[in-house]
Amino acid sequence: MSKYILHNSDLLRGKDFSLKINNRSFLYADGFFESIKVINSNCFNLESHFNRIINTAEFFKMDICFSFSELKNLLDILIRENEILGGRMRMVFYRESDGKYFPIENKIGFVAEIEKSENSFTLNENGLKLGLFTEMRKDKSKFSNYKTTNAAIYVLASIYAKENIWDDCLLLNSENNIIESSNSNLFIVKKNRIITPPITDGCVDGTMRSFIKSQFDVHEKSITKEDLFSADEVFLSNAIEGVKWIESFEEKKYQSYKIARLVFNKLNT
Length: 269
What we know:
The chain is an alpha+beta fold.
């Protein structure tokens, strides 16, 4: 745990913070989270994260009580007090209310913690090996686009990958299209054309996914297992690690990661 954490607008020593037993994120998964990369003591792509916080809170019918500048100031304090140059921050938002399934009020609360990590994005030296997780599927709904605190499918997919000696697993939606991995958005490359699943297929609406779409010509279409086998290249993206190139999916091996490197180079500029 970081030396200091944020609980709403209060800076607390990490050892002094404890979660209340009636916290709704703990009781009902009535919450969501954001993972933010810190580079040179600044939150990378914070506007995009803030926009997603606003959109997710609106979906959850939670009342936001802070502006972008207010949140940025609080996070800057957290970074400074923990003496972070490069790091990874996690914010968990929850409905701060009593009640059972029906909440008495919709005020939002949050906890933010931070830990040191590399002060840049780095491209993986060795390609990742992927498998397919088939024991659970995600629905094609708006709920699937948000990073909620109900992350059971990602936990189980990560365990499944470990059991099969893969680096990660790809997930399916209810129509058997491949939509994402256990912690990243998915991109495939065919004849230099970058393709990613549409969010209507049920993948998380990732901030790094949005960044890549803003910098490159990315085509959205549903992706099948056959598309993975016929792709020239596959890479993953998330807010903390940036871009990760893929060496293999099941028995398919990829011979290139040149587009992943182009995306990585754009990210680091």
